[in-house]
Amino acid sequence: MNSKLTNNIANLVFWMFGFTILGILIWFLWHILAAGLPHLSWDFITGKPQEIIAGGGVGPQLFNSFYILFLSLLFSIPFGIGAGIWLSEYAKKNWFTDLVRLSTEMLSSVPSIVFGLFGMLVFVTTFGLGFTILGGALTLALLNLPVLVRVTEETLRAVPDSYREASAALGATKWQTIRKVLIPTALPGLVTGITLVAGRALGESAILIFTAGVTVSRFAPDFNVFASGETLAVRLWYVRSEGLVPDAMEIAEGTAALLVIVVLLLNLLIGLPSRYLQRKAAGK
Amino acid sequence: MAIKAAEQNSSPPSYTRAVKRNDRLMHWLFVGSAAFVALIIFSIILFVGNQGIKMFGDPEAGIAEFFFTTDWTPGEGKYGALAFILGSFLVTGLALVIAVPLAVGGAVFMAKIAPNWMREIMRPATDLFVGIPSVVYGLVGLTVFVPFFGGIFGTAGFGLLPAALILAIMILPTILSVSEDALRTLPVALEEASYALGATRWQTIRKVLLPAASPGILTGVILGMGRAIGEAMAVQMVIGNAPILPKGLTEPTSVLTTQIVKEMASPFGSTTNNALFMMSLVLLLVSLSLILIIRVVARRRAV
């Protein structure tokens, strides 16, 4: 009787845990969107920012967010996927493999502010570039790398060995097997991994404050990689901490809602094709 | 046709040679990328550490002073960082106290109790929350928690408590999903054996499932801890940024990350600026030791 009663109580408590967590998540999302959506207008999303007077927009920041994201993926995807392929397809059990694995894990644990200081030390000071989109994107690439390596290795490992054997039996070299068999099969997983990385990179602020700076170019959109490039997340932090604009709260709330919407859309837009690819691969 | 094939065998056409050359070339490119990725962490330790150690070149700044005193007054040559180090651990510990029971309870619920439809809602929701930018968490802390605690405690509301609460929400999805994974991948036989002995579901969860999944849950907790201790922007927005030990849960204070952000405008190469690199070296070493702990835990799990 007693143990039955405790069981029922425990059941109830676990249901409460579940609803509490779901409640927190829904409340959080609702709060951001309810506070920010009223501030979102076409002028706000595309307009130029103001430093002292109210009514500025976040157009250049929105552009910079994607531009820096694109550049950082451009720098990190070849190395990340390359290292992932090596770990899954070539690596033998020796000290070098252990070293690569350990240092990738260590890299994934580095706090983003430490990346920020490192990027500042290397690109801003040592190379003397100052605050630039290039420096920001290169430092951000370091944040992406360990996740890309892990996702690539995991997805490639999930490809059955019979695929490799069949390809080898047809006389294909290892590289031909990787290019024509393994990568196409693993593509949905890779795309999901890249979305994960992109979402994280898009919201990153600590790295970019110290490498890409908190100002935007006078020209928008400015493709010059040596210009400084404030992003949406950095803008949100800046107006709430150091900015002088009178409508800082409206800008911050609007930017927060915009960021969340962008992250949501990114998940949907890249998630859908990946699901389609997965279905195609499974239904073949 | 047969003659043509024989000709190909006797002298490999340039096509085959190109394929072989590509194969070797790609192999070396992959090895190169792996070596490059491995090299980064060491160059970070080297660069950041080297810049940080320069601070002790200033006769006013001593190693013992940095690690064991709490007086941070760079204007008078006092560079004690103990308050920030303690603050970092305090805020992380507090966040864990709030997040871990909720996350582990939620993980048990999702893995073993929740009906399918609820799982279908909760899983993408937690995934989404991992992707929400940390500054957005900070803004919610600033607009909701700070005024809320200010009203209750009669202070400005900035301090450890709103920071810990924000960090708890931030790391909740991480701990939840890793723990749920650990619970879900347990062998079904464990659970069935327990039920066959007449145990109730709660008894099975408490005596069998949680102990069996504990290495995985611990890994999740450590991952969450790493994220909390390294978080800068969200904490900086709600902690009040006073370079002193906290007097209460809602009194302004600082942690390692926020102090770095606050003082980063100091001139590069000054002792203050170098001290910030020393602080990030401390952060880096703490994060790296967390990874080593996870490795030890995982090895125990494999046995």
Q: Strand-residue fraction of chain A? A: under 5%
How large is the count of helical segments of chain B? 12
User: How many strand units of chain B?
Assistant: 2
Helix content of chain A: over 70%
Query: Low-confidence segments of chain B, ≥5 residues, pLDDT <50?
Result: none
Overall geometry of chain A: globular
- Order of H and E elements of chain B: HHHEEHHHHHHHHH
Structural class of chain A: mainly alpha
The main sheet of chain B orders its strands as 1-2
The main sheet of chain B comes to: 2 strands, antiparallel
Q: Determine the oligomeric state from the structure.
A: heterodimer
Largest interface, chains and sizes? A-B, 88 and 85 residues
Category from helices, strands and their pairing of chain B: mainly alpha
Distance between the termini of chain A: 55 Å
CATH C-level class of the largest domain in chain A is Mainly Alpha
Helix content of chain B: over 70%
Largest sheet of chain A: none
| Number of H- or I-type helical stretches of chain A | 11
CATH architecture assignment of the largest domain in chain A: Orthogonal Bundle
InterPro entries (chain A): MetI-like, MetI-like_sf, Phosphate_PstA
Subcellular location (chain A): Cell membrane
Organism (chain A): Tumebacillus lacus
Keywords (chain A): Cell membrane, Membrane, Transmembrane, Transmembrane helix, Transport
Structure description:
The complex is a heterodimer of chains A (284) and B (303). Chain A is mostly helical and 284 residues long. Chain A is 77% helix and 0% strand. Chain A has eleven helices and no strands. In chain A, 48% of the residues are buried. The mean pLDDT of chain A is 86. Chain B has a two-stranded antiparallel ribbon with strand order 1-2. Chain B is 77% helix and 1% strand. Chain B is mainly α and 303 residues long. The longest helix of chain B has 40 residues, at 14-53. Chain B is globular. In chain B, a hairpin with a 4-residue loop joins strand 1 (72-73) and strand 2. The interface between A and B is large, with 88 and 85 residues. Chain A: Residues 62-270 form the ABC transmembrane type-1 domain. Chain A: Belongs to the binding-protein-dependent transport system permease family. CysTW subfamily. Chain A: This is Phosphate transport system permease protein PstA.
